[in-house]
Amino acid sequence: MSDITAILLAAGHGTRMKSDLIKVMHPIAGKPMIGHIVDNMRRAGLDDIVVVVGYQQERIRAYLGDRVRYAVQSEQLGTGHAVLQAADLIDETEGGHVLVMYGDNPFIGPELIQKLIRAHAEVDAAVTLLTAEVADPGSLGRILRDPETGAFLGSVEFKDATPEQRRIREIWPGVALFRRKGFTALLRRLDRNNAQREYYLPQAWEILLREGEKVQALLAASEEEALAPNDRVELARAEARLRRLINERHMRNGVTIINPDATYIDEDVEIGRDTVIWPFTFIHGKTVIGPNCKIGPMTTIVSSTVEAGSTVEQSVVEESYVGPGCRIGPMAHLRPGCELEGEAEIGNYAELKKAKVGRGVKCHHHAYLGDAAIGAGANIGAGTITANYNGVEKFRTEIGSGAFIGTNVNLIAPITVGDGALIAAGSTVGPRTEIPADALVVERAQAVIKEGRAASLKEAWRQRKKKREGV
């Protein structure tokens, strides 16, 4: 909707959070509050978004980048003053409308924004407010209506309200759509004749009402949609609600979630149909999980791709790619930068880091593969280590297709193991070794056997212990 400029207010401290972090950057379901709002605006079809920043603006700019434009409110003088800081960006377009929203409510979704836009256009209003009825309005401003007709008469801030007005349960949650023509001139007419000595945005529609303009209040938001979290208790409630909505969306799209109350999925996660998510699973970031997967229980996946038919059980996968039909776990750890082709098996207590693993590779137990490339069909024995770091530099290990690495092998990088080669159990090989294809490598020291020495050695140990203890 190119004729709408969206103004998102994000300059305030949010002091009730009692945090060193600005309120709008507090995360809910893996994304800062303001990120949810910008995404909801985009989904509603709005492509011109201006964020009014002030306190900790560098954090907001670093997060949102060039997805939005910015205006700066250097001094906190109220909502009307905040919107006015974007005047130049508002006035650069003629015609159309201006949507104002607070930057701390992630529950004003795209459908509700579109409903507001339609209602505004139907009556050609000067401004349309989104309102809601809530059980406990607290210190929020109240909406005033004609008791007989229900017509909108105006609004009043809590500190300026009479006891009777404070009993009203209809509130304005900070969303309003204005006609662009004359809007910034209207903002310049606001004054500070109120209890807080601030420029209130609601005074704008009071002026419009007095001048006979069409002003409407659309009672369309639910209580859950309207109330933004203001402290850590409300933040936790908002987190629980949003995660419940996310889980319900996936389940309606064909994902089985065994226990939604014990499953934590971030907003941007994508999951294919017929995948099963077991309890105590955390799926974060921009993770994509294909169809027919089994994830969990007790699994964490961060910003990774897991292709169709794969299993990740009691394991951690971070910023990695897991191909189709793979099996990860239990108790495996894929650190960032891993790439697994199809049907690879990474088992108990195996750890991989920046490892490229070919199709059908088996690495079942207690191995560490760091900065390594493993060819298709290779077998990695229990306790195998790629020694990739010398304290100063990292080095690569290359293992060819079909190679067999025996139990308790140390491969000291840089090292290349050819296709089909066999490294015997217990061998330590490298660095800077190139093992040919189909070669057998055995590296072991000759065992030294001294018969009958065990008992005398143990007695010597006991005597030394007694001497130390002064016995």
Overview of this protein structure:
This protein is α/β, with parallel strands linked by helices. The mean pLDDT is 94. The chain contains 11 helices and 41 strands. Helices cover 22% and strands 29% of the residues. The protein has a 15-stranded parallel β-sheet that branches. The chain has an 11-stranded parallel β-sheet with strand order 13-16-19-22-25-28-30-32-35-38-41, with helices on one face. Strands 1, 4, 5, 6, 7, 10, 11 and 12 form an 8-stranded mixed β-sheet that branches. It folds into 2 domains: 4-226, Alpha-Beta Complex (Spore Coat Polysaccharide Biosynthesis Protein SpsA, Chain A); 232-441, UDP N-Acetylglucosamine Acyltransferase, domain 1, CATH 2.160.10.10. The relative contact order is 0.07.
